[in-house]
Amino acid sequence: MEPKIENALLRAEREAEQKYGDLLRYTYDGPKTHPRMSAEARAAQFSPFAALTGYEEAVSETGRLTEEKPELDEERKAEIDRVLQFLAEKSRRGSREKEEIHIRLTYFRKDERKEGGALLEEAGVFRKIDAYRKRIFLRDAIPEGIALEDIMDLVVEEAEL
């Protein structure tokens, strides 16, 4: 090392020793009033946190896609109505005939959080049509039933219309 630089470093070291010597030789025993914090607890203070609570959920909800309820033409409405009439007649005669009627339907379920909804398909054994509540019920599926106005397609799988 050059003598000028070495002299400057020695001089700075001596000045630091004069000013801060008592602090440089001080030994710290830790806090006297409370126990020492563990390394894990100290690290937890600096761990990341969710500054915007619910932000991730809001972003994913916004990105979730929904569909508009499709409009049925008159021909399709008439076909669904014809099948519903057949099923209503079968349910009126239900106590005399123990025939199981298997149906498959496509219906629109309105989304609870956003505009629009989704087209869903359900298959099962027909149970009844509630004319008062305007709902169709299947055995062992969707306990609250399906609104008749939400049906987009309805097919009887094992009967002659």
What does this protein look like?
The protein is of the alpha+beta class and 161 residues long. The protein is built from four helices and five strands, in the order H-H-H-H-E-E-E-E-E. Strands 4-3-2-1-5 form a five-stranded antiparallel beta sheet, with helices on one face. The radius of gyration is 38 Å and the shape is rod-shaped.
Please render the helix and strand layout as text.
Layout: H1 3-24, H2 39-45, H3 55-63, H4 74-92, E1 102-110, E2 117-130, E3 135-139, E4 141-147, E5 151-156
Antiparallel strand pairs: 1-2, 1-5, 2-3, 3-4
Write a concise keyword list for the protein shown above.
single chain, rod-shaped, 4 helices, alpha+beta, 25% strand, 5-stranded antiparallel β-sheet, 161 residues, 2 domains
Mean pLDDT over the residues:
85
Summarize the biggest pleated sheet: 5 strands, antiparallel
Low-confidence stretches: none
Total discrete domains? 2
Side by side, the strands of the main sheet go: 4-3-2-1-5
Count of individual beta strands: 5
Our estimate of the beta-strand percent is 25-35%
Annotation field: number of helices:
4
What fraction, in percent, of the residue positions are helical? Answer: 25-40%
Q: Which descriptor suits the 3D outline?
A: rod-shaped
Gyration radius, in Å: 38 Å
Quaternary assembly: single chain
Helix-and-strand structural type = alpha+beta
- N-to-C SSE string, H for helix and E for strand: HHHHEEEEE
The separation of the N and C termini measures: 105 Å
